[in-house]
Amino acid sequence: MPDYARLDHPVLVQLLFYPRNDHDQAPPGAFDFPVPVDEVVNIVCRFYTGQESWPWLIYFHGNGEVACDYDYIAPFYTTRRINLVVADYRGYGGSGGQPGFAHLIEDAHILYQALTDEIKRRSSSAPIFIMGRSLGSTSALELGYNYQDRIQGLIIESGFASVTRLIKHLGLPVPGIELDSLENQCLEMIAAIKCPCLMIHGEYDNLVPAREGQMIMETLPGADKKFVLIPGAGHNDVIFARPELYFSAIENFVYRGFVPRK
């Protein structure tokens, strides 16, 4: 298993996390769901629901984003009959604590259990998918590996196989930290993910180049995987550069062979 705790050097944490404490009241049809991750810290996730029998997408957002940013994006999912649950991180949105890589991984497991329990309480038979965008791909890949027999699929958007590759790409300082062994651990983990997978990436993403998403695609062992390149898109406009292509890819992936109850 990848040991991300070795990256929790103050310099790297400051350079790689961009927490915002923005947190607005949930809009109609949505609600906040706090999850305790230790004795003093809650992470606040936001549920955007249509019909509870629809598929559920547990979503880990990108850096510099917060859950309430998705108030404007969630309708693109619900109009396609997909319930969206956006998870925040420590120090982001309405959540307490301070971000770090060990917390990012440890909290992902706690969030997965709490969110899936709530989803199953609402709809015991609806399929559950995991999605991660950019920084969120770290949490999503971790969960995709550990719970692949419990989810129906994994979606990675603008993601990377290991944050070590992003550190190298950006030329960030690595004070006394050896990166290659962690990167190899991450690749070994991805090579063991056999559930259906969808990769989405912007053609002109300069922050996380498309080759990083392609590397995940090539490392995944199964045949049930697809890579969708969004023409003309960068890192932060990948959703809206070609929204029909983006959301159709997700809808088609989620709804393969599934017919929701009326």
What does this structure look like?
The protein is an alpha/beta fold and 262 residues long. It has a single domain, classed as 3-Layer(aba) Sandwich (Rossmann fold). The chain is 34% helix and 18% strand. It contains 9 helices and 8 strands. It has helices at 10-16, 74-78, 101-122, 136-146, 163-170, 180-190, 210-219, 238-241, 243-254, and strands at 30-36, 42-48, 56-60, 83-87, 128-133, 153-157, 197-202, 225-230. The protein has an 8-stranded mixed sheet, sandwiched between helices. β7, α7 and β8 (225-230) form a beta-alpha-beta unit. α3 (101-122) packs across α4 (136-146). The longest helix is centred in the middle third of the chain and has 22 residues, at 101-122. The chain is globular and about 50 Å long. The N and C termini lie far apart (41 Å). The model has no long low-confidence stretch (mean pLDDT 94).
